[in-house]
Amino acid sequence: MTQDQSWIPQNVDVSVPSAARVYDYLLGGAHNFAVDRLMGDKAEEMMPNSRNAARLNRAFLRRAVRFMTDQGVRQFLDIGSGIPTVANVHEVAQEQAPGSRVVYVDRDPVAVAHGELIVAGNDQVSVLQADMRDPDSILTNPEVRRLLDFDQPIGLLLLFMVHWVPDEADPQSLLKRYREALPSGSYLAISHMAGDHVNDEARAVTDRMSKSGGGDVTYRDRHEVEAFFGDFELVEPGLVKFAEWRPTGPGDISDDPAVNRIAFAGVGRKP
Q1: 204-257 residue pLDDT tens
Q2: What value does the mean pLDDT take over residues 156-163?
Q3: Cβ neighbours for 101, distance < 8 A, ≥ 6 positions apart
Q4: CA–CA dist 113, 82 (Å, integer)
């Protein structure tokens, strides 16, 4: 971890793990605390494919963004973006299409604070602290409206996010609100922990995170995740395991078949 502590926001409880910071640690990032590293090490000990799962999800993000830019999308809303690390959405999008605009959203103050440092000086990118379960606070935010034109296609990214929303919080209505706000021609990318291949080790890891304040994971089957796309048209190859969504090379796939099956991933287009 970096010795420079200036990125740590005031009033952050460094004794409680954060899903965003644990994810950053598993990806090899430097913006996490001892409690997050302990949680990440425990996750890797109990479920040895945790680091590979984080890597494959990040690889799916890159492929999804490149696909959307190839379709002409020039603006992105990344909800649950986490702590910016290598190959951020704006880096991938602006490399493909200079001038692409990106808004990152996360509720973790550390993720937001570091994100603001990363994008400082780039007036095409902004970072917002908000909770995905309050869509109106995101969709009506002045900074979101400044950067994103809701009369033009938008790429909405919800990667490893919806499984944090329990069924009692009505994730279907939540996703419907986001889908309805997007204009025709927009795209929605989702990755979600898969219920059909969940094992005792995976449940033990997420149960431990829950008891430590990290939040609950709801594992869902294919038809449940597919329903989050509503009337959006799934692009080929449809909703598949995340290593199977248009892989481009060895870095997109794990040598361990179990890792490749950990999560579903898909991209849908609004008619």
Answers
A1: 555 554 544 445 789 999 999 999 999 999 999 999 999 999 999 887 888 778
A2: 95
A3: 74, 75, 76, 124, 125, 147, 148
A4: 11
Q: Give ∠ CA 207-209-213 in degrees, rounded to 5.
A: 115
> Tokens at residue 228, please?
């989050």
Q: What is the pLDDT of residue 259?
A: 77
- Which residue in 136, 130, 69, 77 sits closest to 98, CA to CA? 69
pLDDT in tens, 3-37: 455 556 666 677 777 777 877 787 777 777 888 88
Position 183, amino acid: P
- In Å, how far are 129, 190, 224, 230, 252 from 227, measured between CA atoms? 27, 11, 5, 5, 25
Q: Provide the token pair at 108.
A: 């973790």
Cα–Cα distance, 52 to 48 (Å, whole number): 8
- Residue 131 pLDDT > 90: yes
The token duo for 173 is 């209505």
The pTM of the full predicted model, rounded to 2 decimals, is: 0.84
